[in-house]
């Protein structure tokens, strides 16, 4: 009997130590993107920051990125995820890749960094404005993709449609290769700058990135609040010696509405109070000042509480 008692005490002690080691932390899953992209390594750092500064333990997982991430949040298969602001808005509205399947249980935590719409062409193409794309072979990405929707909306802003150009459904690398080979005239590329495929093209060819007029940018943002004004600084690419005014959608974090206000408040506070600890190249772009840029959907009440405390919203 005495041995059984001692054994029971020992088992209880081991269980107590195990629970103490875990700290009773809530385990959460953060969906990022492919291992070769930006979302995955950056997500790993953000997951560590949240885990180190809250009572939650966040694990970053590779995924198929934006649209799939939102779908997994909506189905309860994840707690927090990377996505683009335009994809998130499409999900809430039930349009484009979410046509007739609106999402109503996913909310915004905050914006991270811009993914810039770059309209790239060669310096000898004669194309100097969006209107000049009429009748040209222009890469616009895969139908239904974020790049395709960006191209469609920006063309419409300038009185054009897909019927007014010769649309080419190419990847970024195929697009810049097509410009270099003379097989296409221009390409829409939505990505953080500098973009590797555009850098590669700029190393061998003089390139032009088309500016969008400020009044057109204002019109676009008024119609689609998930866009934000952006500037490509002079020197970003070797042949770009003047800054380019354009627009961007933003990488953002979204959360399921099943998370409590306190949990999301603590996550939001951890990220934006400790953004200076991020060593990834995009870390310097994650700031409190830009945390609400491009957000076209409702904030989670926990995130809203944090931003109110910081004076970003009333």
Summed over residues and divided by their number, the pLDDT gives a mean of 90
Chain oligomer state: single chain
How many DSSP-defined strands?
10
Query: What is the CATH H-level superfamily of the largest domain?
Result: Periplasmic binding protein-like II
Integer count of domains: 2
N- to C-terminal separation?
66 Å
Number of helices: 10
Percentage beta strand:
15-25%
Based on the structure given, which CATH architecture of the largest domain is correct?
3-Layer(aba) Sandwich
The CATH class assignment of the largest domain is: Alpha Beta
Helical content band: 25-40%
Shape: globular
- If you consult CATH, what is the topology of the largest domain? D-Maltodextrin-Binding Protein, domain 2
The largest β sheet comes out as:
10 strands, mixed
**What structural class results from the helix and strand content?**
alpha/beta
Poorly predicted parts:
4-22
Helix and strand run? HEHEHEHEEHEHEHEHEEHH
Radius of gyration over C-alpha positions, nearest whole angstrom: 23 Å
Describe this structure in words.
The protein is of the alpha/beta class. The protein has 2 domains: 2-113 and 251-309, D-Maltodextrin-Binding Protein, domain 2; 115-249, D-Maltodextrin-Binding Protein, domain 2 (3-Layer(aba) Sandwich). Helix content is 38%, strand content 21%. The protein has 10 helices and 10 strands. The chain has helices spanning 2-22, 39-53, 66-75, 85-93, 146-157, 172-181, 196-204, 214-223, 261-273, 301-309, and strands at 26-31, 56-61, 80-84, 106-122, 137-139, 166-168, 186-191, 207-209, 228-232, 244-256. Strands 1, 2, 3, 4, 5, 6, 7, 8, 9 and 10 form a 10-stranded mixed beta sheet that branches. Helix 2 links the parallel strand 1 (26-31) and strand 2 (56-61). Helix 2 packs across helix 9 (261-273) and helix 9 crosses helix 10 (301-309). The longest helix is centred in the first third of the chain and has 21 residues, at 2-22. It comes from Ornithinibacillus halotolerans. Pfam families: NMT1_3.
């Amino acid at each position: 009997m005495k041995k059984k008692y001692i054994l029971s005490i020992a088992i209880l002690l081991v269980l107590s130590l195990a629970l103490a080691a875990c700290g009773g932390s809530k385990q959460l899953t953060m969906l990022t993107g492919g291992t070769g992209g930006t979302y995955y390594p950056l997500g790993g750092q953000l997951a560590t920051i949240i885990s180190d500064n809250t009572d939650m333990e966040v694990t970053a997982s590779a995924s198929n990125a934006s649209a799939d991430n939102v779908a997994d949040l909506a189905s309860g298969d994840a707690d927090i995820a990377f996505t683009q602001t335009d994809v998130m808005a499409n999900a809430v509205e039930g349009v484009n890749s979410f046509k007739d399947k609106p999402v109503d249980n996913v909310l915004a935590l905050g914006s991270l960094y811009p993914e810039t719409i770059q309209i790239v062409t060669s310096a000898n193409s004669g194309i100097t404005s969006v209107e000049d794309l009429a009748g040209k072979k222009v890469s616009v990405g895969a139908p239904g993709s974020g790049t395709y929707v960006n191209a469609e909306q920006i063309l419409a802003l300038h009185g054009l449609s897909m019927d007014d150009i010769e649309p080419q459904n190419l990847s970024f690398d195929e697009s810049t290769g097509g410009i270099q080979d003379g097989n296409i005239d221009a390409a829409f590329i939505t990505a953080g700058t500098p973009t590797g495929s555009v850098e590669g093209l700029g190393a061998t060819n003089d390139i032009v990135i088309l500016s969008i007029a400020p009044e057109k940018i204002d019109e676009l943002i008024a119609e689609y609040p998930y866009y934000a004004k952006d500037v490509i600084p002079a020197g970003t690419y070797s042949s770009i010696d003047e800054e380019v005014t354009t627009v961007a959608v933003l990488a953002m974090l979204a959360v399921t509405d099943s998370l409590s206000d306190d949990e999301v408040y603590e996550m939001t506070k951890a990220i934006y109070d400790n953004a200076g600890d991020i060593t990834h190249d995009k870390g310097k772009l994650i700031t409190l000042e830009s945390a609400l840029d491009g957000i076209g959907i409702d904030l989670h009440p926990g995130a809203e509480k944090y931003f109110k405390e910081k004076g970003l919203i009333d």
